[in-house]
Amino acid sequence: MKVGRRDLFKFAAGSVAGLAITPVPWKLLEDTALWSQNWSWIPRPPRGEIGTKFTACTLCPAGCAVRARCVGGQPVALAGVAEHPATRGVLCALGLAGHHLPYHPLRVRQALRGGRPVGLDTAAAEIAAALVEMRRSGSKNLVAVLDERPGRTASWLYRRWLADMPQGRYVTPPEREGATLAALAELIEGDAGPLGLDLERVRTILSFGAPVLDGWSTPGRVLRRRERFQIVQVETRYSRTAALADQWVPIRPGTEAAFALALAHVLIEERLYDEAAARRAGDFAAYRKVAGEFPPERVAGLSGVAAEQVIQTARLVAGRRPAIAVGGGDPGGGPLGREEEMAIGGLNLLLGGLERDGGIVRRRAVPAPKELEAGAAPVTEIQDLPNGSVGLLFIDASAAVDALPWRLVEQKLASGKALVVSLAAYRAGYAGHADYLIPAPMYLESLQDVPAPADAAEASFSLSTALVAPPQGVVEPVEFVGRVTGNAGTLSDWIKRRAAAVYRTGRGTVTTYTTGKVEPLAEVGSAEKFWNALTEGACWQDERVGGRAAPGVALLGRHGDGAARLRRAAAGRLDAGEAPAGQYPLVLAPFGWRGATGNTALSPVMSKVYQESGLRRAGNQAAVHPATGAACGLTDGCRGVIETQCGSCGVAVFFDPAVMPGVIQVAVGPEPPRTRSVLEVCDLEGGCSWRAARARIWKV
Amino acid sequence: MTMDTKRKRPARYGMVIDVDRCTGCGACMIACAVENNVPPAQPEATDRTGITWVRVYQIHNGASFPENRTAFVPVMCQQCGHQTPCVSVCPQQAVDVDRETGIVGQMPQRCLGCRYCMAACPYHARYFNWWDPVWPKGMERTLNPAVAPRMRGVVEKCNFCQGRLHAARERAAAAGRAEPKPGEYVPACVEACPTAAITFGDLADENSAAAEQARGGNTFRLLQKLGTEPKVYYRSSRPWVHQVAQQDFGRRKKEEIRG
Amino acid sequence: MKSNGRIWFPAGVLVSLGLGWFGFPAMLYRAEPQPVAFSHKAHTGQKGGMKCEDCHALREDGSFSGIPGIEKCAGCHASAIGSTAAEKRLVDEYVSQNREIPWLVYARQPENVWFSHAAHIKLGKLTCEQCHGEHGKTDTLRPYEEDRISGYSRDVRGNPGGKKMKTCEDCHGRCGVGQQGCLDCHK
User: Fold this and answer.
1) C177 and chain A: CB distance < 8 Å anywhere?
2) Which of C58, C108, C122, C125 has the most B C-beta neighbours within 10 Å, making it the best mutation to test the interface with B?
3) Residue B67 counted as domain residue
4) CA distance C9 to C14
5) How far is the alpha carbon of C97 from chain B, nearest alpha carbon, in Å?
6) Which residues are within 8 A (CB) of A598 and not within 5 positions of it... i.e. 6 or more apart?
7) Which of A251, A395, A463, A617 is 20 to 30 A from A572, comparing alpha carbons?
8) CB < 8 Å to A251, chain B
9) Any idea what the CATH number is for the domain that residue B188 is in?
10) Which chains touch B (3 or more CB pairs under 8 A)?
11) What is each CA distance from A7 to A4, A17, B228, B253, C2, in whole angstroms?
């Protein structure tokens, strides 16, 4: 049979006609459509058994209780726990996405030496050898642990071990949110023990720049009873707290002490102060004299607040008591000075809030195992270390929160051969400056204890349990330091012993999250049962300490130089600096947001708040008043350079009419900086505050 | 199989947001992203191209320091109840208003990506996927199985956490009830708000807290003059907030970025 | 030889029909055997005495447990029951290693579908068999068939008794629960 060209065409035509009455074209069409709806490279959420687990957030010291929705054991959403007595179901933006953090791209999964991978054992051996060499050579250099989250069981272990080393020092960052309370504890005669804020009953909060409504204290304690107290916000920046405060008092940067003394002056002059409380102060006359030097008229010139507004503010605060005055500073902007805190402490006494319900109350410390408490090394704040003294520095940055300029750490290192070991979960904060970077577990990856935060009104204790497995090669920082320094110890064992120490107090109550049941600790039954309850989702809360005989108070401190220091600080911090006002006409004021100052990693979805909405400023973004900007030749949205006498850094400039003219507000964080952070050009001012510096800015 | 599965009266889910309580912390935006599998921003994403179903806008009274005042206004899909603009322009019928709940639903799988709805939405509450969703390695494990991730080229928006409505309905069904009880269904932003600024509920139920607040004084809706009858109400005691809310503050912000 | 020319067109049609109706479906679907030989009959019949709900139950929150985890299997199969090769594999590869069996789910809907067993069982009063047929009485598990292009299970979109959106709509229409928005069943 001969097959012609024409036949082939016929066959083809037949095939096409036939195909139309088969499922082929229709099914192909449908399947392609379906395929386009389910692209295989779009991630698919895992399926699995749905359950609930409880833990506590360790991203900041507040330690909020967390309810984790888990699918197949993996947390997929975090929420607050309404049953928790202090947090009342509140979790902040950072905490809500905390379960993303173990998978952060900046995660350190391997030990690094000078940025290159090194075996964990090798690193440990090398650091241990360096320590031996230090001892052998009779070096006077210190071995220090900088603990960025004091108060944990791990902190107690550091303190215990360092006490055994002649050159050992236990170092903490400068006190922030607890600074006012720490300063007050210093002013009270005898051992006051820890103090706390009775936010449950307070009716006025006078805040000197503390971000009361924006990541301060335990958010649930503040935010869930916002309508029960008024806020008077004394702050240069129109912060979120200032925006929602009952009154915002914008003062010039660095004039907190003067403003506090002016308030004291008005309180005393108008007899608005608590006279019974003032009788506690042995040096009231001397304090009155200092305050007398700062009448509203003078302070108006210093702080830029009209005299009438100073008077009106004093009346407002005194009119609704109990009132408390708090300092502490901004998470990015650095702490206030000790003199400022002293002045704020004086206001607390005058307002009658000291050791009163609704004011500042005594509380007990969270017990630690006796073996650790006995003979623990004292706590030294980093600015109090002698410069150039540290030969080996361990930085436990596994629970870092607020920003601390690297220069502050660097100036403490012995020149030349100091070794810095950073124990961190991310390449953030000091990781880039460390000789060794040791990978630490992240929140949700290891068992941690959560003691009461610095401002709590009573002691408390809960656990942050491990919900996901840490990556291979991760080591608990305290265990690594123990290994290097020849101290054996397992953190989880010590946490359990601390829980047992808490149980032995027999005081307080245990709240179980699943049922909301509150029962006395004494009725739990045994230390083992208490531990089980804690691991399954419960917290211990101490009872409130009742009123005590009020001991004497020294408003100007107990070292005799208080009045002089206070006068100097109140005369103006910036004018005390060496930078000439002519050369640097503006003031640089860095600011940040708790837990988001670039010292640690953030969940990638936090990009919603600073990249995709502009709700928060991204790191090194500088806001200036349009008038200031125009005077400096800047344009809205331009790139600029800020210079102080400590150096310069690049910034992105934005105009914002809410900024005080003459001030440059620069965001610290939220993400780890890609370029030089603005913190590194801030004036350290005696090593304890960098919240304001003389500066100039120009367009590039 | 018939009557008991139907609810007696359709619901009109809505919310009342107390602007005076909003601290602008962004917890709602983060809780929303976690709940609805909204991916983190691509490095080049901006204000205009990033996706956040609820966006907190900072609005100003227009004055300069120290008279400047600010308020924070969370804006999500306003769930327009009258002539819903996105529904009428969609050529694909990818948007519908659920008669049983009043929720405006967006079907990403049906979406063509023409973005007419985004142009039509007076509240700028709709977002386009300019990129495929990408989570850092390992983070896919934290995705919420109740919500399907979307793909590049489609529009998405707030649907009052439909996944949570599903879960609440399922729980109710297991208990033999056709619909969840009030309080059993709460969107993620409402649950996450640290100051409890958002009250959510059935506006058709006169006894619900949301309906009560919506009726109360000091409430307003965004761009009321358009007559879209949004089911998201706002309240504030500050008159200038009411005024700014009638301006198109969302668009101004976006057009600035366009540069 | 002219008459020969007429057969080419019908031949083309026939070949297309053959390929289209028989070859194409065979090519379109990729068959994959289930990881473990499982007999519903052995478990539910006289020997096992189990009911559907013993393994496929509603959880407390109303969600459906689906296929039980390895823990459930381990309850009886901690050590091998009988001496078949399949039984030995079950115990060695999964039970003793506490590894989940990667079952291929015939009725698995695509990612964007939300289906509530609770609503259909408790409110709709449907029985398992009304949707899943006599699956519970089968002795072997047939291979899972996946559409090479769309990635859907053949039971969902391919077979006449499939669980397409149309299937849902038709039944909802018949039962008078039809007035629904897209997101009632999509997620």
Assistant:
1) no
2) C122
3) yes
4) 9
5) 22
6) A403, A428, A429, A592, A619, A668, A669, A670, A671, A672, A673, A677
7) A617
8) none
9) 3.30.70.20
10) A, C
11) 5, 15, 66, 69, 11
**Strands A663-667 vs A621-624: parallel, antiparallel or unpaired:** antiparallel
In the chain, the amino acid numbered C4 is: N
Contact A185, A195 (CB under 8 A): yes
Residues of C in contact with B163 (CB under 8 A): 114, 187
**Contact status, residue A681 vs residue A647, Cβ threshold 8 Å:** yes
In a domain, C3, yes or no: no
The answer to whether position C147 is within a domain reads yes
Instruction: Report residue B61: phi and psi, to 5°.
Output: -85, 0
Domain coverage including residue C51: 29-67+103-184
Residue B37 lies in a domain: yes
Residue with tokens 């083309």: C12
Cβ proximity of A680 and A623 under 8 Å: no
How many domains is chain B partitioned into structurally?
1
* Residue of chain C nearest B145, judged by CA positions: C111
Distances in whole angstroms, Cα of residue A248 to Cα of each of A238, A251, A319, B248: 8, 9, 17, 28
Nearest to A659 among B47, B65, B140 (CB): B65
Q: C173 at the A interface (CB within 8 A)?
A: no
pTM score, two decimals?
Answer: 0.92
Q: Which positions in chain C touch A10 (Cβ < 8 Å)?
A: 5, 8-9, 12
Q: Is the dihedral of CA C43, C44, C48, C54 positive or negative?
A: positive
Residues in chain C with CB shorter than 8 Å from the CB of A28 are: 149
Residues of A in contact with B51 (CB under 8 A): 612
Copy the structure tokens of residue B227: 């007559």
Q: Can you say whether residue A213 is alpha, beta or left, with left for phi > 0 and alpha for psi between -120 and 50 degrees?
A: alpha
Smallest Cβ–Cβ distance between C5 and the set A7, A19, A24 belongs to A7
With respect to residue B4, please indicate whether it lies within any of the assigned structural domains: no
Domain that residue B175 falls in: 10-258
The separation between the first and the last C-alpha atoms of chain A, rounded to the nearest angstrom, is: 86
Report if residue B39 sits inside a domain.
yes
Residues 243-302 of A with CB under 8 A from B: 243-244, 248, 250
- The model's pLDDT over A605-663, given as tens digits with 9 standing for 90+, comes to 999 999 888 899 999 999 999 999 999 999 999 999 999 988 999 999 999 999 999 99
Query: pLDDT tens-digit profile of A441-491?
Result: 999 999 999 999 999 999 999 999 999 999 998 999 999 999 999 988 899
Are C16 and A17 inside 8 Å of each other by CB? Answer: yes
Contact: B194, A92; criterion CB under 8 Å: yes
Q: In angstroms, rounded to a whole number, what is the distance separating the alpha carbons of residues B105 and A216?
A: 38
Question: Could you give the ipTM of this predicted complex?
Answer: 0.92
DSSP class of C35: S
